[in-house]
């Protein structure tokens, strides 16, 4: 069995306001659930039984599966606390592996975590599955609301996977495997995200480290914003970080490893998305867009899922 332990309760998020731009019904498409038991079964979807919030019943507590009712771009995160055991935690979409997080046995508690953005169609299914893993903590899913009218239909978001072991230190890490890159704002050749739409952004990274010291930094225009450091351990551990930063058009954000032998493995992930666009004067068309003047598939639904 998987050595999962019950996670503490986590407060769910609600959308800022209820309008057609954020919700198709009175209840937001969101859920928050807690594992509630130790050691879930390996090789099948993990079923989180203790419901904190599940407004549209999009998460099935009997099957452990989230089913998409509203097509869009979703953000998923998980943070799994592992107790004295190897742990492999996978996030799958319709059976396809999207994120793989792995840790090896350590004394005491460590964390396996992951983050990604994926485009879902109606009926698509997403779930977590463990293989000999410890406690599952948190999973977040989010459909982002549209920005101002001059944005394209694709959301300002990216999610990328390293795809190779031990990247070069002292320069931007180039994540080559694209999971989602709607506006091509992340350059897989340079490893740099360039802001085209001013506003507040969220960035996250989850780097799997193998048998080495690792220092992973997130920088904005060369300025250190987040520093994550691990020391040498036997086996695999995770270095992760999360931040909100205000960006102007042309600002650049990237990750950098600072140890010559940094230990980063191919199952390392970097993600970011526009959380709140900078306020701009709007005309009638923009006002209608921002306050519900939408039809059919122009409508977006915001979803936040905590486990």
UniProtKB/TrEMBL annotation:
Pfam families: C1q. Keywords: Extracellular matrix, Secreted. Residues 24-128, 151-281 form the C1q domain. SMART domains: C1Q. Gene3D superfamilies: 2.60.120.40. It is found in: Secreted, Extracellular space, Extracellular matrix. PROSITE patterns: C1Q. This is C1q domain-containing protein. The lineage of its organism: Eukaryota, Metazoa, Chordata, Craniata, Vertebrata.
């Amino acid at each position: 069995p998987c050595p999962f332990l019950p996670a503490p309760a986590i407060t769910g998020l609600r959308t800022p306001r209820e309008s057609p731009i954020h919700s198709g019904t009175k209840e937001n498409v969101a859920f928050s659930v807690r594992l509630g038991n130790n050691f879930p079964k390996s090789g099948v979807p993990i079923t989180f039984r203790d419901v904190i919030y599940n407004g549209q019943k999009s998460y099935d507590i009997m099957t452990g599966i989230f089913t998409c009712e509203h097509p869009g771009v979703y953000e998923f995160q998980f943070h799994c606390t592992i107790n004295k055991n190897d742990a492999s935690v996978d996030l799958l979409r319709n059976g396809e592996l999207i994120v793989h997080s792995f840790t090896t046995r350590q004394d005491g508690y460590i964390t396996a975590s992951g983050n990604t953005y994926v485009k879902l169609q109606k009926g698509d299914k997403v779930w977590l599955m463990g293989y000999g893993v410890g406690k599952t903590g948190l999973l977040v899913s989010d459909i982002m609301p549209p920005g101002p009218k001059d944005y394209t239909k694709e959301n300002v978001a990216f999610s990328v996977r390293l795809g190779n072991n031990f990247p070069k230190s002292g320069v931007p890490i180039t994540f080559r495997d694209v999971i989602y890159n709607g506006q091509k704002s992340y350059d897989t050749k340079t490893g740099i995200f360039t802001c085209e739409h001013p506003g507040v952004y969220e960035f996250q990274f989850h780097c799997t480290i193998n048998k080495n010291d690792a220092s992973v930094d997130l920088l904005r225009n060369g300025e250190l914003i987040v520093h994550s450091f691990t020391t040498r351990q036997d086996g695999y551990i995770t270095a992760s970080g999360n931040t909100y930063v205000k960006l102007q058009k042309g600002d650049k954000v990237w990750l950098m490893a600072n140890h010559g032998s940094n230990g980063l493995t191919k199952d390392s992930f970097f993600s970011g998305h526009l959380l709140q666009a900078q306020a701009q004067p709007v005309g009638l068309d923009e006002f209608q867009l921002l306050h519900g003047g939408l039809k059919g598939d122009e409508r977006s639904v915001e979803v936040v899922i905590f486990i």
